[in-house]
Design goal:
The protein has seven helices and no strands. By secondary structure, the chain is mainly alpha-helical.
Length: about 220
């Protein structure tokens, strides 16, 4: 609980400031571009744009915050060492939960993996639902975003800090991209199901319109 409060407080504080500043800067730009292209900033984008912005702020908050104090940051080569090989997180989780049985899947070692997948599920949902993107586009964009995040962590925010304060992990890139794919397929499944239901109802409605009216005869 102490660890949660120690980390959660600064993350929430910095995330709120970041979210407010981002909305103040980005929302007017999105509204201007949308009006310039479509003549008005109306329709679903009135709520889609803030949702997308807040989601991106959430990704930044989860992956970079809290930012450390550059003057008090202690650089140690054995801390936050990069993991360039896939499978490290799963092997580490299995090793730490050995002997725990099925309950080991619900420990923090595995929960971190689940959260990395869950973090990018909305990415795939937005790619399919908001932007009508293909699976390939959703996959490549999520992979590129995850790679950018990991490289930013590896370089200490591109040299702003003297050393990295977060860990570069190939597994994070894999789980993030997997989450985006899951999100894309969730929307695809829902839309396919809805179209199938509409298609099934259409012949029934046509048959009802073609049925002769009762009481007509010679």
């Amino acid at each position: 609980m102490r660890t949660l409060l120690r980390w959660g407080g600064p993350i929430l504080e910095q995330a709120l400031v970041l979210g407010l500043l981002t909305c103040l800067v980005v929302l007017p730009i999105v509204a201007y571009l949308h009006r310039r292209r479509h003549g008005t900033f109306a329709g679903s984008w009135r709520w889609r744009a803030p949702v997308v912005i807040l989601y991106l702020v959430g990704i930044v908050s989860f992956t970079f915050l809290p930012l450390p104090d550059p003057h008090s940051l202690v650089c140690n080569g054995t801390v936050n060492y990069p993991r360039f090989f896939a499978g490290w997180s799963v092997r580490h989780a299995l090793r730490e939960t050995a002997g725990s049985g099925p309950l080991g899947l619900f420990t923090w070692y595995f929960v971190q993996i689940y959260l990395n997948i869950l973090l990018f599920v909305p990415w795939g949902v937005a790619a399919r639902w908001f932007f009508r993107s293909s699976l390939r586009t959703a996959f490549l964009s999520a992979f590129a975003a995850s790679l950018l995040i990991e490289l930013t962590q590896l370089t200490g925010v591109w040299g702003y800090f003297d050393c990295r304060y977060r860990t570069f992990d190939v597994d994070d890139m894999i789980t993030n991209t997997l989450g985006a794919i899951i999100g894309w397929f969730l929307v695809w499944a829902v839309t396919t199901y809805r179209r199938a239901r509409v298609g099934a109802r259409a012949p029934r409605r046509a048959l009802k319109r073609e049925e002769p009216h009762a009481g007509t005869g010679c």
